[in-house]
Amino acid sequence: MSINLPPVDEARLAAEWEADKDVLANLAANGDVARIARPVDVSFRGSEKDFDRLLTIASQFGMVELDREEDEEGDLFLFLECVQPVDEASIRALTRKCLQIEILCGVEYDGWGCEAQAGAVH
């Protein structure tokens, strides 16, 4: 099954990139080697119904479900994981993909995170 991904609002993408740069700078300050592939978590806020569709789409991009949580306000969050480097190009591509999933599924993309990886690239 092939998904036609919608265009992303470039202003929204630019705003997300500003937040992404802060995360990357923090990782770099902790000795991260961005080109090392590692587990990267992404999260979305939405409903159980929307999460089912989201999982179908996200699985085509190598994302797997990690967890579902409800916060204090009763909002539901779905946490996914993919394995990839966190260099600028890779994170820009991930953020664009997540914003496209947001549009397709009626959920809210809530960002990404990972652990710093130091050492040699294999």
TrEMBL record:
A Pfam family this chain is assigned to: RraB
Highest taxon of source: Bacteria
All copies of domain Regulator of ribonuclease activity B, residue ranges: 17-114
The name this protein goes by in its record: Ribonuclease E inhibitor RraB
Organism: Sphingobium psychrophilum
